[in-house]
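Page header: ASSEMBLY MODEL / two components / 579 residues total.
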Amino acid sequence: MDMPQEAPAAFRTSAFRTSAARPGPLGLVAEALHEVRSRHRLIRYLAQADLKKKGTDTLFGNVWWILDPLLQMAVYVILVTLIFQRSVPDYPLFVFAAILPWKWFTTAIGDAIASVSGQDRLIKQIKFPKIVLPSAVMLAGIAQFAFGLIPLAAMLVLMYPARISPMLVFIPVVAAVQFVFTVGLGLLLAAVNVFFRDVGILARHVLRLWFYLSPALYGAAVVAEVGDSQPIIATLMRLNPFYTILESYRQAIYDGAVPDLAALAVVLIGSVGLLLVGVVFFKRLEPAFAKVL
Amino acid sequence: MASGNGGSAEYAIDVQGLGVRYNLRLTRKTTLRQSLATIVRRGEGERTFWALQDVTFRLVQGESLAVIGPNGAGKSTLLQALAGIILPSAGGLEVRGKVSGLLQLGAGFDQELTGRENIMLAGAFLGIDHRDMERLAPGVIDFADIGQFIDAPLKTYSSGMRARLGFAIATSVDPDILLIDEVLATGDQVFRVKSKARVLELARAAKAIVLVTHDMTWVTEFCNRAMLIEAGHVVAEGEPEEIVRIHQEHSEASRLRKAAEAAALLGTDAAAAAALGARPPGAGAL
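Prediction written out in full:
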């Protein structure tokens, strides 16, 4: 049988394999890029399988992707407006604009952490680029985020039509920055979790704390208030990439304003750096996965 | 013997002084605490383990090599190294041509996807172009013979059906080198006959096969070379009948040794029981 001209890496006639040194950081990044490109179909199949699994586990299936953020919003609205008696105009929309992307972030990170260590049998039996595993689940996360935009649109149209503005076009821009950051962190944690399962447990708590330190339930105004008495803490809070990311979503969705593009650009540059570190780190550790799992 | 043939271009597999070392500090679901503890107690105990050492052999197209040996001898590690799943820690190896490394049947299957979708998924894992896989799919479905179930999710399959589908995929991708790990024990009688025929067909088509098995009839009937591995070392290599004979002698010897050990343990138990005196039988279990 004639093989396609460009046989994929797994099938190409191999050179003498030894324990010789691996390529440098740039070589690893190039390798990862090639792997993701040449295995895009595998990534797609895996992402589809992931979405299918999440949809079939429950009675309501994919409807949960819409209901879940709404219910979470309801919890926070009750907590903040009834118990803490804080009054922010149109608080449901205010908090939903932040909960939706945050939920995407935590789900993607959690799935990425489990993606490699959960496929131990597979990794020991087939040679394939392991980077497809976290990539696939994080791509699948985008679909869940997109589903969450449906209730957001419904809320805007039915409850807050006055807040609809052309600034909504900035949502995909902010989402792109968030995605780069998520993939970088996800790759890093997925690789470490193969060696130390503590990462998965620790991540849950760190993410929860991170959520409360990010302007999700409260806005930039509260951070400014903190700054009046404790300027250092306020500065640290602003250094959190999710300060910029969540504030940008809120500006586009709730305030109908142009997000702080300069701050967003800084986060993007940092996220690209994190992504490069994540890729190199993942590729460095990859050869040991089959032995350790 | 094939290893005497000249011209290195003929080799499908060339293994030179292959060694695979495991780092015991990192294997087996460690937590940070355990590994910190071992780092602190550095030097205490063995921290590495050689699963394979000094393995050297060459295989030409058309040869089928059976790898036999007791459990934990390193047979599967050898296959993993040949498939490129793990890198050698010492020495090196070269594998020329397409490798079908479905070491165990059904690796890469997803429970929620249908049989048809799983064929495409497994093909994607093996790195086969999806157009080729679409062309191969009817043959795979036909060989696996799972009827209407091909469009049902994999979780509804019996283990036999899963094994048949896995075998059909592994052998239909037309590999130059086929690596098989204990897959032939699965499936019913009819499928066993069919799968034996398929492997023979591949062997005739000048493919190189490395087979890890405990089924000695396979070794003598279908392999033209055999290799005995014990505790990570190649103990013997050559004609299948000869190697199987050595393996059986060795396993008989170790069986007798274990039987003697067990008898000794039972003996001490019996002595202990006798010393306890007039207790009714069964009371000792408390």
